[in-house]
TrEMBL record:
Ranges in coiled-coil conformation: none
Source organism of this protein record: Aegotheles bennettii
PROSITE patterns associated with the record: FN3, IG_LIKE
Domain named Fibronectin type-III: residues: 472-568, 570-665
Name this protein carries in UniProt: MYPC3 protein
Keywords on record: Actin-binding, Cell adhesion, Immunoglobulin domain, Muscle protein, Repeat, Thick filament
Family that this chain belongs to: Belongs to the immunoglobulin superfamily. MyBP family.
Length: 763
């Protein structure tokens, strides 16, 4: 459709941005507002537009060639079409159309029309190149105008994401808009970030992407950051934390024998933290036997085929943090005294140098249990898991498997080759080895090792305990939702991993985002948390992790999505409009702050004087801003209050301070005679007469019409009365309707009168 917007618009009120006359706004605005207006309405060349505004000429009053000239200025949305039209005095006159002083030639986009006295230039598919000065020339006379091509609003197609960083880290906020190279504004906590602040902030454009970069963040950078275009807004929160590293699992002392594997492992809270391993204060250099790994939050030092030279103090030092994690590696030499011939078998658990009856292994780690044995002749070894139906037995191919029966299977005394099973047994000359690769919860239990030879037998029970990270907790529950806060509650995990839960970690994200943001660095000890600093009207989700000495659980399922909203503020301008013997009429205006929760309606209540019981004055909510309260008791003194309601609850109450007495207010009768009735009203025979006379007075006055001193009682004269006016109606006037009419208002002993003279004349 055409978009023709004249420069002068009178008192018309625009209802949408497309109807707004930018020329008129700039003409009336103070210079301090120019930049704001340019951003809001997409003006890319503000300086040029202001120069053009000064050049706009006022219309000359007299013109011989033009009956109607061009308006001083027009605007059109980019991509739309516009028609520039003049009316010429001579219907046969030829006109020329100029753009920036150059004559326009007919083309597919520029169309010339002559319709009677009208001359029309149509510009199709307007582009920024059409933003120019135009002239229509007839002979020696010209008509000037300026055309502003307004770009469509810039939309935010990919919003900002919340960010959480450590002090000193780089922050990069990124969003994507609908047009390349668009102009945007950045704000922090409602204050615009200017280009002059380049020492702190860096602004970057890359095609449709817009960036705000903070190279080295500080605690002062905490806050809400907003990117604005003339067609959208996006807000994200930045949380800057002091550098703090939590140790979820420290390294532990190890006691190992020759040819065993030693694994030091620790887990820290930040997966990006690097570190070094030290042996007796010197950095460990990895080689074919010594491996160092860093996967996520877990750091490992693995030593294969341990030798006496590996016995030392080992430490892990996180990079950038002034503390270390230390443990000792103790080399165990297994010494078995000479055993005389025909000696019964013996299991030497005491040689392990520690309490051997319970072995603790972290889930996923390798369990290697070396059991020194002696006896002559060399004993046969049988391993059983005594607290389960299945036993550990050796199959015919020399591997050890889990059998579903309880039979024992003896191994011979020769060296057994390592099998491929996850659970297996190795036999050596002076000891046997029980191995579980990647320990699992199901591997827990009591394992019995039995050694036999012809002279006798020996048994020992060893308890294996597998500890793990906790199970993920159930989804947290959200309650007490406010304007920017809520209460998060959760339950402990069903399984704590075999170790006490030390605390919890809470994360939050926007519903439409993929980025989870951690809300606490110190572990939460309680099962509830007050989450704050959220944005009203944005939908969020929460999830929780449980942490024990082994590490952090998998995340819980996300909570139900929720939106922080607040009740509106109380209604304003709450007043009494009218009172009768049984009714009170109230009126008010909407709250100043409604918020993202919208407005569902109002609840009106009253309370008798010297009582504390508030009674609903209306059934349910009302969406109107006035109310008639009926069926009240005459003489009662009542207090009234009103509250605004939305999803978040009730606003504060607006109260009329003084009690209202339910009693008709006495108001003197007064007739407001219209000016045209103060003179004789002349009508022709057959015309309709409709006289409306407003008045005031309370209680409702008695209304008396008289004609020529007599009571008015004619079938062809209609009288209709209301609370605020009286009407005399004659469908077809006749000569006998002429005369002096008198209206009297009466309230008790108070009256008011006016007289009207009507003259009916013949045709």
């Amino acid at each position: 459709s055409d978009t023709l917007i004249p420069f002068y618009r009178g008192d018309a009120k625009p209802e949408s941005q497309s109807d707004v006359d930018v020329w008129e706004i700039l003409r009336k605005a103070p210079p301090s507002e120019y930049e704001k207006i340019a951003f809001q309405y997409g003006i890319t060349d503000l300086r040029g537009m202001l120069k053009r505004l000064k050049r706009i000429k006022k219309e000359e009053k007299k013109s011989t060639a033009f009956l109607k000239k061009l308006d001083p200025a027009y605007q059109v949305d980019k991509g739309q079409k516009i028609k520039l039209m003049v009316e010429v005095a001579n219907p046969d006159a030829d006109v020329k159309w100029l753009k920036n002083g150059q004559e326009i030639q007919v083309s597919g986009r520029y169309i010339f029309e002559a319709v009677g006295n009208k001359r029309i230039l149509t510009i199709n598919h307007c582009s920024l190149a059409d933003d120019a000065a135009y002239e229509c020339v007839v002979g020696e006379e010209k008509s000037f105008t300026e055309l502003f091509v307004k770009e469509p609003p810039i939309l935010i197609t990919h919003p900002l994401e919340d960010q959480m960083v450590m002090v000193g880290e780089r922050v990069e906020f990124e969003c994507e808009v609908s047009e390349e190279g668009a102009t945007v504004k950045w704000e922090k906590d409602g204050i615009e970030l200017t280009r002059e602040e380049t020492f702190k902030y860096r602004f970057k454009k890359d095609g449709k992407k817009q960036y705000l970069i903070i190279n080295e963040s500080t605690k002062e950078d905490n806050g809400h950051y907003t990117v604005k275009t003339n067609g959208g807004v996006s807000v994200a929160e930045l949380i800057v934390q002091e550098k703090k590293l939590e140790v979820y699992q420290s390294i532990a002392d190890l006691t190992v024998k020759a040819r065993d594997q030693a694994v030091f492992k620790c887990e820290v809270s930040d997966e990006n933290v690097k570190g070094i391993w030290l042996k007796n204060g010197k950095e460990v250099v990895p080689d074919e036997r010594i491996k160092i790994s860093h996967i996520g939050r877990i750091h490992k030092l693995t030593i294969e085929d341990v030798t006496p030279g590996d016995e030392a103090d080992y430490s892990f030092i996180p990079q950038g943090f002034a503390y270390n994690l230390s443990a000792k590696l103790q080399f165990l030499e297994v010494k078995i005294d000479f055993v005389p011939r025909e000696e019964p078998p013996k299991i030497h658990l005491d040689c392990l140098g520690q309490s051997p009856d319970t072995i603790v292994v972290v889930a996923g780690n390798k369990l290697r249990l070396d059991v020194p044995i002696s006896g002559d002749p060399t004993p046969t070894v049988i391993w059983q898991k005594v607290n389960k139906k299945s036993d550990l037995v050796r199959s015919n191919d020399d591997s050890v498997t889990l059998s579903e029966n309880s039979s024992d299977f003896n191994t011979d005394s020769k060296l057994l080759f390592e099998s491929e099973g996850r659970v297996r047994v190795e036999m050596h000359e002076d000891h046997c080895v029980f191995i579980i690769e990647g320990a699992e919860k199901e591997d827990e239990g009591v394992y019995r090792v039995t050694v036999k030879n012809p002279v006798g037998e020996d048994k020992a029970d060893i308890t294996v305990k597998v500890i793990d990270v906790p199970d993920p907790p159930a989804a947290p529950k959200i309650s007490n939702i406010g304007e920017d806060n809520c209460t998060v509650q959760w339950q402990p995990p069903k399984y704590d991993g075999g170790q006490p839960v030390l605390g919890y970690i809470l994360e939050r994200k926007k519903k439409k985002s993929y980025r989870w943001m951690r809300l606490n660095f110190d572990l939460l000890k309680e099962l509830t948390y007050e989450a704050k600093r959220m944005i009203e009207g944005v939908v969020y989700e929460m999830r929780i992790y449980a942490v024990n000495s082994i590490g952090m659980s998998r995340p819980s399922p996300a909570s139900q999505p929720f939106m922080p909203i607040a009740p509106p503020s109380e209604p304003t301008h709450f007043t009494v409009e009218d009172v009768s013997d049984s009714t009170v009429t109230l009126k008010w205006r909407p709250p100043e702050r409604i918020g993202a929760g919208g407005l569902d309606g109002y609840i009106v209540e009253y309370c008798k004087d010297e009582s504390t019981e508030w009674i609903p004055a209306l059934p349910g909510l009302t969406e109107r801003t006035s109310a008639l309260i009926k069926d009240l008791v005459t003489g009662d003194k009542l207090h009234f209050r009103i509250k605004a309601i939305n999803l978040a609850g009730e606003s504060g109450a607006a109260i009329i301070k003084e009690p209202i007495t339910v009693q008709e207010i006495l108001q003197r009768p007064k007739i407001w005679l219209p000016r045209h009735l103060r003179q004789t009203l002349v009508k022709k025979v057959g015309e309709t007469i409709n006289i409306v006379i407003p008045f005031q007075g309370k209680p409702r006055p008695k209304i008396i019409w008289m004609k020529d001193g007599q009571s008015l009682d004619s079938k062809d004269i209609g009288i209709r009365n209301s609370n605020t006016d009286t009407i005399l109606f004659i469908r077809k006037a006749e000569l006998h309707h002429s005369g002096a009419y008198e209206i009297t208002l009466q309230i008790e002993n108070m009256t008011d009168k006016v007289a009207i003279t009507i003259q009916i004349i013949g045709k």
